[in-house]
């Protein structure tokens, strides 16, 4: 074979081998895509909120058992007063706000509206910080009107029930004075140991209220699952009261997964609201002054209706409906000169200078 042809053949073979080797070389791996962001934390509300809410729920349920259908004796009135006075105002106020937050979490619209912002960790943390700094921010979140509607409708039922009891008890305070009522004999008799019963009411008002284990468990499950409470869909547009916005803020934190045990200090702080506490504290003051002025049992009956049942209805309603705090004076009923208007006081934003003196001089045909 000619040398030129051999050289040419070797060159072609070398090129073919080089091309084959190049095709077999390992390609550089492409850069892996960044991992997806972690999912937002689940809806989480700590047990402390459920325990606080259980105090409100359990007390209102117990207070609603006061039977206004006619007290059979003087002791039954005292038992009802003890039952109605057995709440510490600050705890009951915090419990109402905590309960409102659990009700808000029963709104799928609100929970979903808040959680859409939880996927981005930075945005989520910004929202958490803003809710803690300004609870009213919760009112601007998607679905807030649906959650607020549930709170107003549910807590409003408590107020309606207590108001019905108040009206019946107050009316019976007049009825029991009538000569044809067989209870009149003991109803118009001066109460013995008046100071002891007053001090007893004051003592009961200062006792720390303990959460109900059964109720706490039920509310804790309802909060974290978004179901379990009997609520009726309703909407409430802003503006909202401070107590209502704080309920929404706690619920929003829970929807963002930022209201667990590690955030209990935040939820505890959000449950404190001065207007609601003031109303309940003033109610207790008026109850004590009413009992201090009351002498026969029918006047104690009126104190029960006015400054336990009615004031509870009023403070509960105003916590979610309007920030003003007013309990009106009783209306005169019955035949003039025959039925005595029981002692009464008025709950206002500022305490009266000294209503006790006027209470102690209230007229009474039976004394």
Verbal overview:
The chain has 367 residues and is mainly alpha-helical. The radius of gyration is 33 Å and the shape is elongated. The protein has one domain (47-357). It contains 15 helices and no strands.
Keywords summarizing the entry:
mainly alpha, disordered C terminus
Walk me through the topology.
Blueprint: H1 3-24, H2 47-63, H3 74-85, H4 89-104, H5 108-115, H6 121-133, H7 144-175, H8 184-187, H9 194-206, H10 213-225, H11 242-255, H12 264-270, H13 274-293, H14 297-320, H15 355-360
Helix pairs in contact: 2-4, 2-10, 3-9, 3-14, 4-7, 4-10, 4-11, 4-13, 7-14, 9-13, 13-14
Care to give the gist of this entry?
With 367 residues, the protein is mostly helical. It has helices at residues 3-24, 47-63, 74-85, 89-104, 108-115, 121-133, 144-175, 184-187, 194-206, 213-225, 242-255, 264-270, 274-293, 297-320, 355-360.
- Secondary-structure element order, N to C: HHHHHHHHHHHHHHH
Shape: elongated
- Secondary-structure-based class equals mainly alpha
Spans of at least 5 consecutive residues whose pLDDT stays below 50 are: 324-341, 348-367
What is the helical fraction, as a range of percent?
A: 55-70%
